[in-house]
Amino acid sequence: MSKKRAGFVALIGEPNVGKSTLLNRMVGSKISIVTHKVQTTRGRIRGVAIEGDTQIVFVDTPGLFKTKRRLDRAMVASAWSGAIDADVVALLIEAHKGITETVRKIIEGIDGKVQSKHVILVINKIDRTSPEKLLSITRELNEIFNFEETFMISAEKGHGVDKLKLWLASMLPQEPWLYPEEQIADLPLRVIASEITREKLILRLHQELPYQLTVETERWVEKPDGSVLIEQIIYVVRDGHKGIILGNKGTTIKSIGQDARADLIEFLGLTVHLLLKVKVRPNWQEEKARYTEMGLSYNDGNV
């Protein structure tokens, strides 16, 4: 009988608590964008990690937050769907922020939505607070909800991550692996490429603009010399946004393209030719096709 194990681990929590950083650390490659801004993960991103005979499929969900727009609502619905479908649910919180009102609401949601699952608490960024505060947070949260285990980690620095990965591997069911051994994500390469460029836009732009844009890979052409040509469209909602992205004499978009191309070369291991275009599309956040591209359900954005 095969001793192989496989299953899904959903990472949930507030925006910017380190879910994407933890996912990338576990997988050993950057497949989910990481920035200092909140709400950067939009769809559910699955990363595949191997631990011994176990294949762990991590689901990096959008942060859970108060919704205002259709896109917000679809993102939050996606997060809860990822948790409900998983074998293990890991609630991440930031050590230095402690127990916020949103964390309390997420725990209420876990209590009401997640049935018969392994639910664990992962306290991240432990280097930002004192051991006394960590113990206090752990005690209080476990009084609010009966977590199966509590782990204290630094996803950025790797502290405690190996112990967490070993425990997760031991809890997944005995099943054949779900993906080929060499596969690290179940996102199409076109989508990963779009996310890489979107990360560079978010890092470069400091206004509300990052939440008003999306990136779509329009063409992916494998060239005879082994290189790849990638053409992407950056959709924005207003003409003024287009000018911000282009910058004076195109300097901003050129810099963004250079940074994205460098990451794409590293990720793909190929020579990459990247062409970026900016188009104004005022209602892209209401277009069903954009939601499909992001792996979100358009109907989940309904009021």
- The percentage of residues in β strands lies in 15-25%
CATH class of the largest domain: Alpha Beta
Average pLDDT rating = 81
Uncertain segments: 35-43
- Number of separate domains: 2
Query: What is the chain-wise order of helices and strands?
Result: EHEEHEHEHEHHEEHHEH
- Strand tally is 9
Q: What can be said about the biggest beta sheet?
A: 6 strands, mixed
Alpha-carbon Rg, integer: 20 Å
Shape: globular
CA distance, first residue to last residue: 49 Å
How is the largest sheet built, in terms of strand order? 2-3-1-4-5-6
Can you tell me the CATH architecture of the largest domain? 3-Layer(aba) Sandwich
Under CATH, the homologous superfamily of the largest domain reads P-loop containing nucleotide triphosphate hydrolases
Helix content: 25-40%
- CATH topology title of the largest domain: Rossmann fold
Q: What structural class do helix, strand and pairing data support?
A: alpha/beta
- Total number of helices: 9
